[in-house]
Amino acid sequence: MGADQGKGAEWVSLHQKATPKIAWVMPPTDYADSSGAIVRADDCDLVARVVSMGAVHQAFTGTGSLAIAVAGGINDTLVAQAVGSVVSGRPMRLGHTAGCMRVFAEIALSSDGTYRAESAGFTRTARTLMEGHVRVPLKGV
What we know:
The structure is a single chain. By secondary structure, the protein is an alpha+beta fold. The chain has one domain: Diaminopimelate Epimerase, Chain A, domain 1, CATH 3.10.310.10. It is 21% helix and 30% strand. The protein is built from 3 helices and 8 strands, in the order H-E-E-E-E-E-H-H-E-E-E. The chain has helices at residues 3-15, 62-72, 78-83, and strands at 22-26, 31-32, 38-39, 46-52, 55-56, 92-96, 99-109, 115-122. The chain is extended and about 70 Å long. The chain starts with a helix and ends in a 19-residue tail after the last strand.
């Protein structure tokens, strides 16, 4: 690595809090979400947390959920082990800080033994983003 590249790498490590993303995964268990509601182990295929911007994310990052979905479709990954089987071609229910979300991936295994993610996606957890009152004058109704 050249001197300029080394300085750039040092700057990124000191100033870039968005990466790396680190996630913890575990088999499903009952837990209280961020609102205090109980999420039952039967409602999730695995439980995970992800760090983003130097703190545990308030729900789960989109990019992190895609990585979890893809890892769930590959044999012998920590995600597949936490779920208890390989999950490919059907949604996986990911329990996170704010509840549960569905992630999915289609994984192909080639004849040479390598995996390829054909597709991956997620649905967001519905959560209250804003609460308030709106005043509408009666004349306008």
